[in-house]
Design a protein that fits this description.
The complex is a heterodimer. By secondary structure, chain A is α+β, with helices and mostly antiparallel strands. Chain A has 14 helices and 14 strands. The chains are: A alpha+beta, B alpha/beta. The interface between A and B is medium-sized, with 26 and 32 residues.
Chain lengths: 427, 227
């Protein structure tokens, strides 16, 4: 009888019930999309942020000490300690090798430009360097990948173009250099004429630099096979209390904590592993970048939680209006049931079951629609698919249940207050 | 022995006295009609006797229980177990068939029994219309379904509010025949009506005016008692 009554009520109020299911589906779809994106957003945002530069700086131990003790910039050339170019491939052999997106070495030196007295900074680097790794794998890495947001007038140069250079916009402006111009640079080990292929604008102090292939800088500085520093772009997990303690002193961790830290892609763990493979090096997280990433991630997740909560509140209000309207429409029927002897509980259960069935229908439709929305968000915002997380299913189920229940409260209260004499006889 | 007793019953809405100090006894097996003009308190009295409302003052004893002192939950139980309600507007659930409408009362009383519900419909001459929806039934047929629903749990008291108010003469006669049959079988019936012909069928007629009993007419003895 219960099911006959429920079935009859559902069929009789098809339009209203479908509206309830639709409202729930909307809320569930947003919750599904947001939860899936939220759980996947860490990797996505990390990937996105990695396109804006490096987050780890690897320098020789001595240069790092000078920086720590006297605030001497590693690029100043004061230190005469260097890293070995031949060891750089090892960076891609660490435990978190797959999280190393790109890296580029730099050899910083001072040169004179076009015979002027004033020294300018010149850096040799890899632009797009093919590297055969000790593991047998190979990769192409360098500045073109790491600094792809640079505004370049002209063209990027390649590692093979040893008679070409790229000049920073500030320096180019002061010396009236444009793409296609020929410049002359003189270093410790001789002079070289270079054709400017591109003028770049970064908005940072790099705009004062001349970039040339690493080999050219090594020849000019007489530092064959050496580099001053390496910038590494790695996918990392946002810092927490454990990673912050480890960053200060990994030895302060217990064995279990150390294993957890070492096997998590914290920026400090990846830096530590890089130090292990590059002789006499110190790998330092670029704290500002790492912290910004963490802050952006937290804010993005908070935004998604807020959108989810607001959408669910919206759904609850929608359900509340629709169900109350439905119960008011059925007040005579409910009054009659009370008149023939039904208590409040079975009538409430009847109405609740109807709504929860609609919740189930709306929830299932909303879940699958939400998966679609998540993919749309993934492709339009991050340019890749969002991983579907199975743990979202119970989360959405519980949320839909609670929202449906919360949305039903006003109607149940109205139903409980109905007196048969009032609805059947108008008294 | 009285099945129903009203002692000094009043119902007051603000300054309006819908019922004013009513004293009335209904013996078991009696057919009583309540008449009176609109606003005389007929429906209020029916609501109080039918456990759908409570008096402001006085007591209502139904089968030895003072229902004026019961809580809403107990009143629902009394209504379910002891009273069969028949309405002028039938109040059938329009998405359930005639048979299912009868079974609804069984469902909230004990257990739905399709065979028994069918027998109730047979009793009111509607066995052939059991699978029809209310919208497919005439007014008279709908009222008979309402009567079958009221009778299905064997109530002590049948309370009918204008049971023929929406029916033509032919259907009115069918409904009255059913009431006559129930009366012969010993049912206690209280009918609220405007229709003198319906009231004439009852053993006693209570006439209400301005919330008070104006007079009680005894149809069998032709006596008249002033209220």
């Amino acid at each position: 009888m219960f099911f006959r009554m429920m079935n009859g009520a559902l069929l009789r109020q098809k339009g209203k019930m479908l509206m309830i299911a639709f409202t729930i589906a909307l809320g569930a779809s947003l919750a599904t999309a947001m939860l899936n994106v939220m759980l996947d957003v860490g990797d996505k945002i990390n990937q996105e942020l990695k396109t804006y530069g490096a987050n780890i700086n690897v320098v020789p131990k001595e240069a790092s000490l000078l920086d720590d003790l006297y605030g001497v910039d590693e690029r100043s050339g004061v230190s005469n300690k260097y890293l070995q170019e031949s060891e750089l491939g090892r960076i891609k052999t660490i435990f978190w090798a797959f999280n190393i997106v790109d890296f580029a070495p730099f050899l910083d030196t001072k040169v004179t430009l076009n015979g002027a007295v004033e020294n300018v900074e010149l850096a040799g680097t890899w632009f797009s360097h093919h590297l055969d790794l000790p593991t047998g794998e190979s990769l192409d890495t360098g500045m073109i990948n790491m600094k792809n947001w640079w505004d370049v007038s002209g063209d990027w140069i390649t590692d093979a173009e040893e008679d070409s250079a790229m000049v920073g916009s500030l320096l180019a402006g002061r010396h009236q250099i444009a793409p296609g111009d020929v410049i002359s640079v003189a270093g410790k080990n001789g002079q070289k004429t270079l054709t400017v292929k591109g003028v770049f604008n970064t908005g940072s102090d790099e705009d004062e630099l001349i970039y040339v292939p690493l080999k050219v800088a090594q020849d000019l500085a007489d530092r064959a096979g050496l580099v001053s520093r390496v910038e590494v772009s790695a996918l990392t997990t946002p810092d927490n209390e454990l990673s912050r303690r480890a960053a200060q002193n990994p030895k302060s961790l217990s064995i279990k904590e150390w294993e957890t830290w070492y096997c998590t892609a914290y920026v400090s763990a990846i830096s530590y592993q890089i130090q292990e493979v590059i002789t006499d090096s110190v790998a330092k997280p670029i704290r500002q970048v790492a912290e910004s990433e963490g802050a952006i991630l937290e804010k993005t997740q908070l935004l998604m939680v807020l959108i989810t909560i607001l959408s669910l509140i919206g759904a609850a209000l929608g359900i509340s209006n629709l169900v109350t309207a439905s119960v008011m429409e059925r007040s005579r029927e409910i009054g009659l049931l009370k008149a023939v002897g039904a208590n409040d509980f079975p009538i409430s259960m009847l109405v609740l079951t109807e709504i929860l069935l609609m919740g189930l229908l709306g929830g299932v439709i909303g879940y699958f629609a939400g998966l679609g929305f998540a993919q749309i968000i993934g492709h339009s915002v991050f340019g890749s698919a969002i991983d579907i997380k199975p743990m979202v299913i119970p989360l959405v189920a519980v949320l839909v249940f609670l929202v449906t229940l919360a949305g039903s409260i006003p109607s149940i209260r109205f139903l409980l207050s109905l007196r048969p004499a009032e609805v059947l006889h108008g008294r | 022995m009285n099945l129903l007793e009203l002692k000094e019953v009043s119902k007051i809405y603000g300054t309006l006295k819908a019922l004013n100090n009513i004293d009335l006894s209904v013996p078991k097996g009696e057919w009583l009609a309540i008449m009176g003009p609109s606003g005389s308190g007929k429906t209020t009295m029916m609501n109080i006797v039918g456990c759908m409302d409570k008096p402001s003052n006085g007591s209502v004893i139904l089968d030895g229980v003072d229902i004026s002192k019961e809580n809403p939950r107990s009143l629902t139980a009394i209504r379910r177990d002891k009273i069969g309600l028949i309405f002028q507007q039938f109040h059938l659930i329009n998405y359930l068939t005639a048979l299912e409408n009868v079974m609804v009362a069984q469902y909230y009383h004990s257990l739905p029994d399709e065979k028994e519900a069918m027998q109730a419909l047979e009793r009111v001459g509607l066995a052939g219309r059991a699978k029809h929806l209310p919208s497919q039934l005439s007014g008279g047929e709908q009222q008979r379904v309402c009567i079958a629903r009221a009778l299905i749990n064997y109530p002590m008291l049948i309370l009918a509010d204008e049971p023929t108010g929406n029916l033509d003469e032919a259907n009115e006669n069918i409904v009255l025949d059913i009431f006559r049959q129930l009366h012969r079988e010993g049912s206690t019936i209280v009918v609220v009506t405007h229709d003198p012909e319906v009231a004439e069928e009852a053993e006693r007629i209570v006439v209400l005016e301005h919330g008070k009993i104006a007079r009680i007419e005894d149809n069998h003895r032709g006596e008249q008692e002033e209220g």
